[in-house]
Amino acid sequence: MRYRSLLHNFEKNDLSMSAYLVGIKHFCDSLASCNQHIYLAEQQSAIANGLPSEFDHIIQISANLAMTNQSTPLLPAYTSHPSPQSSHSNRATGFSRGRGRARFGGMS
């Protein structure tokens, strides 16, 4: 189908990354509207193939993570662990509303 060909030949060139990804999404949505299923791996391949060589290091990192079956982003995994400084005494208790000036139920 023509949309699939356009998807696989679409290049970033001088587009912003946001505009490039919107273009990729447009082709994927167009394929879906024609009942043409497009797999995530095909979308990722089209994105990677359309990027200039300055993005090769990002593509390599992504490929390495995929090969090691690291499907979760690193940052959320890192931030989900409590920091050593956090303790129960730092948490608000009772009806404390934090540092805001307004009171629940009316003006002061």
UniProtKB/TrEMBL annotation:
Show the segment(s) annotated as Disordered: 74-108
- In this chain, composition skew of type Polar residues spans 80-90
What PANTHER family does the record tag this protein with? CCHC-TYPE DOMAIN-CONTAINING PROTEIN, PTHR47481
Name it.
Uncharacterized protein
Organism expressing this protein natively = Gossypium gossypioides
